[in-house]
Amino acid sequence: MPAPRVLIVSPATEAANNGNWHTAARWAQMLQPDCEVAIAQDWDGTPYDVLLALHARRSAPAIARWAKAHGAPHNAPGLAVVLTGTDLYRDIQTDAQAHASLRLARALVVLQECGPDALPNALRPKARVIFQSAASHAPLPKPTLPLRVVMVGHLRDEKAPQTLWEAARLLCGHGDITFDHIGGALDAALGEQARACMAQCPQYHWRGALAHGDTLHAIAQAHVLVHTSRMEGGAHAILEAVCNGTPVLASRIPGNVGMLGANYGGYFALDDATALAHLLLRCRDERAETEGLYTLLQHQCAARAPLFAPQAEAEAVRALVRDLLPASR
């Protein structure tokens, strides 16, 4: 019997270097050699056994054509829709095409454990959680001071970078805390604000977009990863920090709580730069204390790391495809 044919529709291309593309590329690798896998930005009608569509809104045309081709007004055979943060926490409430994608899909994939809660009650039985993954590495040795802080994410409104800039300004007199900010300026105005923060705060450095390997190295070298987002589907930066032994300070939003757990000790309220600055000072001051905040976050992140193991993700993705294949195969 020939290998199943799987198409992964990703609105993002390799050049975008964002979470959607990394998910598509990683899943394609995990499904080979058991499946014949292709990645495209759309579906052109070529026969496939399974369609995995990333992004309910941006992939909506491909999702609708697949369902129509299969004569399915709902639960189309072979079709799974992978939901992003903007899908879950904005688009499915306001965009008719995104909402239709939920109905058309046979399976709905969310990337963190709070994701199903954002779906309409009637559709939650179609949901399954697949945590994304990264290879684990032993933590790199880090100097006592300065406390190295890194934030990773392209400059756009959903990432709320203003919270980091305000925290950096609040800590401007503390030369023993430094900030590296990695990500391209998808919003030109936010790029100007990043440059203004660099001019005002010598310890803040906006490094722009970096290659993935360089970004991972910066995360591993940091003492703390800061994640200020206002909406997330399941942030790569968080799991990459956890798998590199770098504790996380994150906004308390469902997408982050679904990654780090309800009882995680490193949350601050969305947009609350003062609370973030206070947590950074505590990490600096308590880093050597066995009962301090920094040690607590290290232990809590280590406890979550197995969720982000590549083997666990690969098994979940392969199971998804098996469940979507026609019974006749």
Notable traits:
40% helix, Rossmann fold, 12 helices, 2 domains, alpha/beta, 329 residues, 12 strands, elongated
Describe the protein.
The chain is α/β, with parallel strands linked by helices. The protein folds into 2 domains: 5-132 and 309-324, Glycogen Phosphorylase B (Rossmann fold, 3-Layer(aba) Sandwich); 147-308, Rossmann fold (3-Layer(aba) Sandwich), CATH 3.40.50. The chain has helices spanning 19-31, 60-69, 85-94, 96-104, 162-170, 188-200, 212-221, 236-243, 254-260, 273-286, 293-304, 310-324; strands at residues 5-9, 36-40, 50-54, 79-82, 107-110, 127-129, 147-152, 177-182, 204-208, 224-227, 248-251, 267-268. The protein has a 6-stranded parallel β-sheet with strand order 2-1-3-4-5-6, sandwiched between helices. A 6-stranded parallel β-sheet has the order 9-8-7-10-11-12, with helices on both faces. Helix 5 (162-170) crosses helix 10. It is elongated and about 65 Å long. It starts with a strand and ends in a 5-residue tail after the last helix.
